[in-house]
Design brief:
The protein is of the alpha/beta class. The chain folds into 2 domains: 79-108 and 228-403, Rossmann fold, CATH 3.40.50.1100; 113-224 and 414-438, Rossmann fold (3-Layer(aba) Sandwich), CATH 3.40.50.1100. The chain has 19 helices and 13 strands. The protein has helices at residues 15-21, 47-55, 68-75, 109-127, 145-154, 173-180, 195-206, 209-214, 225-228, 232-246, 260-270, 287-292, 318-323, 329-335, 343-357, 363-377, 396-403, 411-418, 430-438, and strands at 3-5, 30-32, 82-84, 95-99, 136-141, 160-167, 186-192, 217-219, 250-255, 275-282, 337-340, 384-388, 423-427. Strands 3-4-12-9-10-11 form a 6-stranded mixed sheet, sandwiched between helices. The longest helix is centred in the N-terminal third of the chain and has 19 residues, at 109-127. The radius of gyration is 21 Å and the shape is globular. It binds pyridoxal-5'-phosphate. Pyridoxal-5'-phosphate (PLP) binds next to helix 11. Residues 107, 109, 145, 222, 255-262, 309-310, 364, 389-390 line the site of pyridoxal-5'-phosphate.
Length: 447
């Protein structure tokens, strides 16, 4: 299996090179030459086993092929349960919360960040048998959840260090803590600027050929294949088990920002997993709802909302979605439905959720829950799973006042909150970042 670019200007590329590069050299996004159909889908008890089956065709010619099982065992070491919710009148076993928040940083990004870390570590081991390769710096610009997941995934991995850039004062206190609590080979920098400034600085460094000859630099952003493909595993796992038990395909509602998680659901369905309909919920950033309602695709400036991990005006994976529908807008609009949910509705949905569904959703998950409520009102009686993209305790300052009681953090999140956190100030100035990266490794230690 080879990989091509959505812009079609590069020769077919091996997965090892696509994983290391992140973005394709023609500026496009890597996609598999074709999405393979699996011959049979067996429900498995362990998510790691489904993950291995889903990912094996993509890694058939990779130097990681023989390590794939071990990488999956490590990356998918916590479950993604389908929790039945109290129904809205559709009968039992129709409404599910698809809990993707049982990882170390309590958001779905843990799965793919951990897979990517395992894969890059495996490539490094295959590459540098002598163990003398210089430290690889993973540079991440983040508005919250990505940085924490990547930090946790690479923490204490020999041969890697992580540099996190986040906008000072623009992430929640708990998110800031989750970025600065790791230490050792992970360092967080508070940038005196916006998220866009952080992203510009990271892009500038990744495009700086002279710097990259000096220090090996990689990105871990959401357009990497190593972030996208691993997310197909949990949809395939849940849908296969659901179909075996209930004889029905599992329809999914995915809270969406950059379309990474949504594209993964589509990949699972195209591979033949019994995923039914896919509906997407956005927040008030309405680039996608407008496009799916028939307007031309037009990225817009980002608006700040309660579901801040979905504050995206130019969804980076849109190019993949369009590619998979042969650039045919009508086909794409026919394949997926999208609805936007504003902040007032997010608040009302969170406040009513304990009574209505017996669950407490995070603000992102609430957008999906709202779509489920609309479907039930319209008389839809099919089984639906709402992807719960983060644990509500990560957004306690929004959720707790609405539900009227404290929300207990899960154990891994509680443990990182108990650690001291530290982030250094850095101006939004490329020269400062470059000097810092050129001095790698940033902190010498035993890793
Ligand atoms: C990143 C994130 C999203 C959006 O996911 P995409 O793959 O960018 O669409 C939704 N919810 C939470 C909690 C997130 O961290």
């Amino acid at each position: 299996m080879k990989f091509v670019s959505t812009r079609g200007q590069i020769p077919p590329t091996a997965i090892d090179d696509a994983l290391s590069a992140g973005l394709a050299p023609d500026g496009g996004l890597y996609v598999p030459e074709r999405i393979p159909m699996l011959a049979s889908w067996q429900p498995t008890a362990r998510l790691a086993d489904t993950a291995q089956a889903v990912l094996a065709p993509y890694f058939a010619e990779s130097s990681l092929r023989d390590r794939l099982a071990a990488i999956c065992d490590q990356a998918y070491s916590f479950d993604a349960p389908l929790r039945p919710m109290r129904g809205d009148g559709a009968g039992p076993d129709r409404d599910f919360l698809f809990e993707l928040f049982h990882g170390p940083t309590a958001a779905f990004k843990d799965y793919a960040a951990r897979f990517l870390a395992g894969a890059l570590a495996g490539l490094r081991a295959a590459d540098a048998a002598t163990g003398t390769a210089p430290t690889n710096t993973i540079l991440v610009a983040t508005s919250g959840d990505t940085g924490a997941a990547v930090a946790a995934a690479f923490h204490r991995r020999p041969g890697f260090q992580v540099v996190i850039l986040y906008p000072d004062g623009k992430v929640s206190p708990r998110q800031a803590h989750g970025l600065g609590c790791w230490g050792e080979n992970v360092r967080a920098f508070r940038i005196d600027g916006s998220f866009d400034d952080c992203q510009r600085l990271a892009k500038q460094a990744l495009a700086d050929g002279d710097l990259r000859r000096l220090v090996p630099l990689s990105s871990a952003n959401s357009i990497s294949l190593g972030r996208l493909l691993p997310q197909a595993a949990y949809y395939a796992h849940a849908a296969t088990r659901f179909a075996a038990e209930h004889g029905d395909a599992l329809n999914v509602i995915v809270p969406t920002g950059n379309l990474g998680n949504a594209c993964a659901a589509l990949v699972a369905r195209r591979m033949g997993a019994p995923v039914g309909e896919i509906r997407l919920a956005t927040n008030a950033n309405d680039t996608l709802p407008r496009y799916f309602a028939g307007e031309d695709y037009a990225p817009r400036p980002t608006r700040a909302t309660l579901a801040n991990a979905m504050d995206v005006g130019a969804p980076s994976n849109f190019e993949r979605l369009r590619h998979w529908h042969d650039g045919d807008d009508a086909r794409l609009r026919g394949a997926i439905q999208v609805q936007g949910v504003d902040d007032a509705t997010i608040r009302a949905t969170i406040a009513a959720a304990p009574r209505r569904h017996g669950v407490v959703p995070c603000p992102h998950t609430a957008t999906g829950l709202f779509l489920l409520e609309r479907l039930r009102e319209q008389g839809d009686e099919r089984p639906w799973a709402v992807a719960a993209t983060a644990h509500p305790a990560k957004f306690e300052s929004i959720v707790e006042p609405l539900v009227g009681h404290p929300v207990e953090p899960p154990p891994a999140l509680a443990a990182s909150l108990a650690q001291p956190a530290r982030a250094d100030a850095l101006p939004a100035d490329y020269a400062a970042l470059r000097a810092l990266l050129a001095a790698a490794p940033i902190e010498r230690g035993s890793y």
